[in-house]
Design goal:
Layout: E1 2-3, H1 8-17, E2 22-26, E3 43-50, H2 51-58, H3 64-87, E4 117-123, H4 125-133, H5 141-165, E5 169-171, H6 177-190, H7 216-223, E6 234-236, H8 243-256, E7 261-264
């Protein structure tokens, strides 16, 4: 639901949100709460970067950012290949994608090929910060700055690759739960050190999440990524909060941060 103020209706949604999954989207005057028809976009392809694996590869004698660079370049090449494939289904005269098959943007007209976005997501941000600094994101201000530096690096490199290839590459908070599970298994098979990293966990942290007890401090840190990635979501576990606590958290997130969304999962 869209959060544009406080009141009895919002309290009722908080009661429901404390019992089932819900995403609260903040209605901000600067348009940071995406969803308006003018901001409609179509994602043609999505790829997830495995951040911890870039670190494991660097232990062979390279540098983490060099390996991250390799991952970004490979992702850009994969998107270029996808664009080449999709072009075959685009009308050359009109630039409309899939017109013969009935594809269209709901309420926004035809899907235009040149307006497609090609998304990059991330998995394992918290884990790679731990590998690089020996502490998790919420461990210190230095760890938070390291996480922001990594995300900023990916963000600005994607902008460079977008200009280079004429491709709308965007850093997105895309669903990566399955990928986060697979990455742990793959890394555990390839890199001995990876087997001991997640002794009590089954997946890398998805997207721009931090690990730790639910608190406004943790949500505020997650909200700091929203300046680079408006689609990012601050996340709470509904089993750990009451409707009243959720209502209070929504108020603080809206007034004290630039968070665009809060996901109750």
């Amino acid at each position: 639901m869209t959060v544009s103020g406080a009141g009895e209706e919002l309290k009722e949604f908080c009661r429901v949100g404390a019992e089932r999954r819900m995403i609260f989207q903040f209605d901000r005057p600067n348009g940071n709460g995406a969803g308006a028809s003018s901001e409609w976009s179509a994602t043609a392809h999505a790829i997830t970067l495995n951040l911890p694996q870039a670190f494991y590869r660097s232990e062979a004698g390279s540098d983490f950012y060099s390996e991250l660079e390799t991952s970004i370049e490979l992702a850009a090449k994969a998107h270029l290949q996808k664009r080449q494939l999709l072009r075959k289904f685009t009308d050359r005269a009109s630039g409309v994608f899939g017109g013969g098959t009935g594809w269209s943007a709901e309420g926004a007209g035809a899907l235009r090929f040149e307006e497609f976005e090609y998304a990059i997501g991330i998995a394992g941000l918290n884990e790679v910060v731990r590998l690089l600094s020996s502490e998790e994101i919420l461990g210190s201000d230095a760890a938070v700055r390291l996480a922001l530096r990594i995300v900023s690096y990916v963000y600005f490199r994607l902008r460079e690759e977008s200009t280079r290839h004429g491709l709308r590459l965007v850093l997105e908070d895309i669903p990566v739960a399955d990928a986060a599970d697979r990455f742990v298994k793959i890394d555990g098979q390839l890199y001995p050190r990876a087997r001991g990293l997640l002794t009590d966990r089954t997946r890398y942290t998805p997207g721009f999440r931090v690990r730790g007890a639910p608190s406004f401090e943790g949500l505020a840190v997650e909200a700091r990524f929203h300046t680079l990635v408006p689609t990012a979501r601050a996340t709470l576990e509904r089993s750990r909060l009451s409707a009243a606590e959720l209502f209070a958290i929504l108020g603080r997130l809206h007034s004290e941060t630039q968070a665009s969304r809060l996901a109750v999962e």
